Amino acid sequence: MPEPVILLDDLTKEFPTDPPVRALSAVNLRVERSDYVAIVGPSGSGKSTLLNMLGLLDRPTSGSYRLDGIETTMLKDSARTTVRGSRIGFVFQSFHLLPHRSVLENVMLAEVYGRGSRKGRRERALRALERVRLSHRVEFLPGRMSGGERQRAAIARALMGEPALLLCDEPTGNLDSRNTHAVLDLFGELRAQGMTIVVITHENEVSERAARRVRITDGTLAEE
Amino acid sequence: MHPRDLLNEAMAGLLARPVRSVLTTLGTVLGITTLVVTLGVAATAGNQIVGRFDELTATSVTVEVPENPFPLVDWADVGRVTRLRGVVSAAALAESDQSANLSVRSNDMVDPTRVTDQTLTVVASGPGLPAAVKGRMVEGRYFDAGHIARGDKVVVLGRHAADMLGITRLERAPAVFIGTQAYTVIGVLDDLKREKSLASAVMLPPAVGRRYGLSTVTRVLVNTGLGAAELIAEQAPAALSPGNEALLQVISPSSPTRARDAVEGDVNALFLILGLVSLVVGAVGIANVTLVTVMERIAEIGLRRALGAARRHIAAQFLLESTLTGLTGGIVGASVGIVVVVAVCAAKQWTPVLDVRLAVMAPAAGAVVGLLAGLYPALRAARMEPVNALR
Ligand SMILES: Nc1ncnc2c1ncn2[C@@H]1O[C@H](COP(=O)(O)OP(=O)(O)OP(=O)(O)O)[C@@H](O)[C@H]1O
Ligand SMILES: [Mg+2]
């Protein structure tokens, strides 16, 4: 049996405030390759905290997290950074595109910190933009594009380097319903191509399109 | 991370806010300009002074002969100095308090009843005086060894003295009277570069000077070739008065390098401080703006961390941005500074003297300023936790 992309085992995150806040308590989660999981829950339930754990942006207090077969909780900061850069593609609610760089440059940025060669980077970025159907916007600045186009550019950037996991934080939060559909259609296509997708959302529209829904309430997970 | 990518990202960061980047360099531009202008003008002015110094003073050596029971230097001894290697000309002079204010009279040749009476300085000298004071005989000639040997009653007038006595032409062998004694004026000396006071003096051969207390040599004027002054200053006393050299006093120019250093030192100290202060202000400016930029780009830092940037990558980018800012300031400052130096020289008709190393050192100094200024902001950026940066 192949390794799951995500394997959380009793993962706990406690913030050392006074009194301490247990944002995640002994969470278990298994996400297989080509899975499409939506994580839903009310405000303050721990969605962002979970995303930060999955994205290796923050460290858990206890428990283990295996990403693509790598035990990450023991890794040093620099190794976590490398794993993050090579295995995870992030999609944010606010796109996080650099406003003064063209779409192509924004996508190419994904390879700047990797070990890969500079050669062929442009072609790889163009191919990623083709996958999100933005080939006609390659030289545009983000400010001159619609929200849906911007999010597709951000997805193209996330796809660079063939990550094991596409980690999306409210990816449609800033989009109207037409663009939301376009982005959700794209997720469907990518999943069909074998991409593993985890989406954090509070929108039913989004969670309904996922293959699996996981509800988080006060730091505990429950499959729906 | 490939160095080319690092440079790309830093350049893009600076070009994203072009106006701010330009304004940020201004402090460094000002500081580097001040430094380059200071060093350039000081070197040029210093060189200028040395130039004049060379012509007038750097080759002048004067040996003073104190009063002594027996004469320390004889008139003929000057010949031994003239033969020293490096000596261009030399002449002995006798001056005394007694002869400093003598009444000198001349009869007007046209109207002998008109008498001009002046109080003038009378000195005795050897025959080499015109050369020794770098002067020029505008009328007649100077007395020579023959006049001296025969004890001829002749005088040479300084140009100013001749004017005062109303003597302009020598065809009719005009005479002047010192006291009741008449002397024939055989020449007028002008354009003195040394001992300019002799322009108002009456010069006598030593033999006739005796009666005015001008029998012993009191000073020897020596002119040397360039660079020989120090050596001649050492050798001249022994040549003039073997065995008594310690009793003679030598006045020689301070060495030209020392003179230039002194000039440069004076000018530099003040303006170097000014330039360094401007540089510090420039550094603070860069640090300030870079810090603001870091704070504005927290989200960008978070994104880069999410894309796999390590802390050192973030630090390197901001350091490079501030270094490039400083380098640009240094290049612009050096260029402006050089233009200013050349302009000042053109206005003053000086030959600009610029150390070529300045063209490399000035931009490098700017880059170092930028690097130092970027240290703290870069550290702040690198320390940022990705979770917080992306929030
Ligand atoms: N840095 C922190 N320090 C202390 N407590 C925190 C911190 N971050 C989150 N928390 C707490 O942890 C709990 C979970 O927060 P989290 O941000 O994960 O909620 P969320 O599900 O993302 O909410 P929302 O939908 O409003 O974004 C909350 O009670 C929150 O107050
Ligand atoms: Mg949240």
From TrEMBL, chain A:
The keyword Membrane does not apply. Transmembrane segments: none annotated. SMART domains: AAA. The keyword Transport applies. Pfam families: ABC_tran (PF00005). Keywords: ATP-binding, Nucleotide-binding, Transport. It comes from the Bacteria. GO terms for molecular function: ATP binding. Residues 6-224 form the ABC transporter domain. This is ABC transporter ATP-binding protein. It comes from Streptosporangium pseudovulgare.
UniProtKB/TrEMBL annotation, chain B:
It is found in: Cell membrane. Residues 273-386 form the ABC3 transporter permease C-terminal domain. The keyword Cell membrane applies. It is a multi-pass membrane protein. Residues 21-221 form the MacB-like periplasmic core domain. InterPro entries: ABC3_permease_C, MacB_PCD, Macrolide_Exporter_MacB. Its main location: membrane. Keywords: Cell membrane, Membrane, Transmembrane, Transmembrane helix. It comes from the Bacteria. It holds the Pfam family FtsX. The chain crosses the membrane at residues 21-43, 269-294, 315-344, 356-376. The keyword Transmembrane applies. Belongs to the ABC-4 integral membrane protein family. This is ABC transporter permease. It comes from Streptosporangium pseudovulgare. The lineage of its organism: Bacteria, Bacillati, Actinomycetota, Actinomycetes, Streptosporangiales.
